[in-house]
C-alpha cells in the first residue's frame, strides 16, 4: 500500500550493543516560487555528511538528532528560496501539476544522508562484521531474486506475461550469463541473492562510496568476489554498456523522497531506459508506490518523452518504451479502508 514504509531487517548485534537509532520522521519540503521549479542540487541543500558523534563502544554512530535538525533547516531554507540552481535535465518540478501519488520530501532523499549512513555501516562492519540493514526484509529480497529468475522465461518468450510464474522452472543455461545491474545497490545483498540463483554477470552501482566499499567487503567475505561494484549515480550514469536485467529495491523510493523527487524520477526512467537492452526487463520493488502508481508513472514518462498528443490509442505501440509484464502476487496483503493491498510491491517492465 503506497506510503507505508517497512522497518529494515537487522541481523543480531553483539550482546550489550545499543540499538541503532530509528530514522526520524519525514521532513516535508514545501514548494516555492511560481509554476515552474527547477531541480536544486544536493550541494545546495544537503546535510553535512561529516556530522558525527561517537555514541557507543562498538563504533561510530550517527548523531541522528543533529542530522534531523540539519535536514529540517536546510530543506526549509531551500524551499523558501526561489533561486534554485538549474540541472542538466529536460524535466522540472511543477507545483501546479502535482501527482496524487507523490510523497513528501525527506532527508532520506539526499545523498549526504546515505553517505553518512553507509559510513556508519562500514565502520560497524569493520569492527564487528555487522552486515547492515536489509530494506524490506530478507524474505522480500529472496522473493525478488527467485522471481527475477522466473522472468527469464518471459525474456526468452517461453511463458506469456501476466501469469504468476514465481515457481516456474528455468533452464540455468538460458540466463546465467545475462548481464544484471542493481541500481542503488547499497550493501549489495540483493546481488548475492541473485548469485545464489545462478546469475554470474552481476554489477551493482551506488552513488555513495561508503555503500560500494561496504558491498565489496561483504561480497568478499561471503564468497561473491566476482560481483562488480561501482560508484555511479543512476541519474547521471557513466556506464557505457547495456544490461538484460535491471533491479531496483528501494532506490526509486529514495529518489522520490528528494525535494525535487518527481522531476528526478522522470530522469531516473530516462536513464534506465538507456541502460536496459531492448527486450530486457526492469524489476522495481517499492514500499512508497503501488503497482498501479508505478504503471501510471511509466505511462507519464512515455507521454513526456513523446508528447501527449502522440501517445493515443492509435499510436500507443509505436511510442511505447516500457511494457508491464507482471508483478509479485505472493506478498502478504492487508485491508485498509475497504481496499486490499500489500506493504510492498515488486513490478516488472520489459523494454520495448
TrEMBL record:
Top class in the EC scheme: transferase
Pfam short name (any one): Methyltransf_31
Alphabetized GO MF terms: protein-lysine N-methyltransferase activity
Function of the protein: S-adenosyl-L-methionine-dependent protein-lysine N-methyltransferase that methylates elongation factor 1-alpha.
One of the GO biological process terms: methylation
The protein's name: Protein-lysine N-methyltransferase ZEAMMB73_Zm00001d043827
Family in the record: Belongs to the class I-like SAM-binding methyltransferase superfamily. EFM4 family.
Disordered: region residues: 1-45
Amino acid at each position: 500500500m503506497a506510503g507505508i514504509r517497512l522497518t529494515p531487517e537487522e541481523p543480531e548485534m553483539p550482546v550489550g550493543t545499543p540499538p541503532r537509532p530509528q530514522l526520524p520522521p519525514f521532513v516535508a519540503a514545501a514548494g516555492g516560487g511560481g509554476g515552474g521549479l527547477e531541480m536544486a542540487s544536493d550541494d545546495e541543500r544537503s546535510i553535512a555528511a561529516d556530522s558525527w558523534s561517537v555514541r557507543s563502544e562498538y563504533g561510530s554512530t550517527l548523531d541522528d538528532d543533529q542530522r534531523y535538525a540539519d535536514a529540517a533547516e536546510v530543506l526549509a531554507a531551500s524551499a523558501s528560496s526561489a533561486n534554485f540552481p538549474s540541472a542538466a535535465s529536460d524535466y522540472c518540478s511543477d507545483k501546479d501539476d502535482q501527482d496524487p501519488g507523490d510523497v513528501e520530501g525527506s532527508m532520506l532523499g539526499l545523498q549526504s544522508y546515505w553517505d553518512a549512513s553507509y559510513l556508519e555501516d562500514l565502520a560497524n562492519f569493520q569492527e564487528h562484521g555487522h552486515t547492515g540493514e536489509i530494506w524490506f526484509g530478507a524474505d522480500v529480497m529472496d522473493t525478488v531474486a527467485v522471481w527475477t529468475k522466473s522472468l527469464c522465461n518471459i525474456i526468452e518468450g517461453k511463458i506469456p506475461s501476466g501469469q504468476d510464474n514465481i515457481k516456474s522452472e528455468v533452464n540455468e543455461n538460458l540466463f546465467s550469463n545475462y548481464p544484471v545491474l542493481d541500481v542503488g545497490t547499497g550493501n549489495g545483498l540483493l546481488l548475492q541473492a541473485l548469485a545464489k540463483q545462478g546469475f554470474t554477470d552481476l554489477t551493482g552501482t551506488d552513488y555513495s562510496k561508503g555503500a560500494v566499499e561496504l558491498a565489496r567487503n561483504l561480497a568478499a567475505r561471503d564468497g561473491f568476489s566476482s560481483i562488480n561494484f561501482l560508484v555511479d549515480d543512476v541519474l547521471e550514469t557513466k556506464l557505457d554498456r547495456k544490461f538484460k536485467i535491471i533491479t531496483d529495491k528501494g532506490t526509486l523510493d529514495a529518489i522520490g523522497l528528494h525535494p525535487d523527487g518527481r522531476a528526478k524520477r522522470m530522469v531516473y526512467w530516462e536513464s534506465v531506459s538507456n541502460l536496459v537492452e531492448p527486450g530486457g526487463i526492469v524489476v522495481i520493488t517499492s514500499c512508497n508506490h503501488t503497482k498501479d502508481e508505478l504503471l501510471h508513472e511509466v505511462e507519464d514518462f512515455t507521454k513526456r518523452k513523446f508528447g501527449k498528443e502522440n501517445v493515443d490509442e492509435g499510436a500507443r505501440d509505436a511510442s511505447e518504451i516500457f511494457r508491464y509484464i507482471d508483478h509479485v502476487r505472493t506478498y502478504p496483503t492487508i485491508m485498509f479502508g475497504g481496499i486490499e493491498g500489500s506493504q510492498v510491491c515488486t513490478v516488472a517492465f520489459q523494454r520495448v
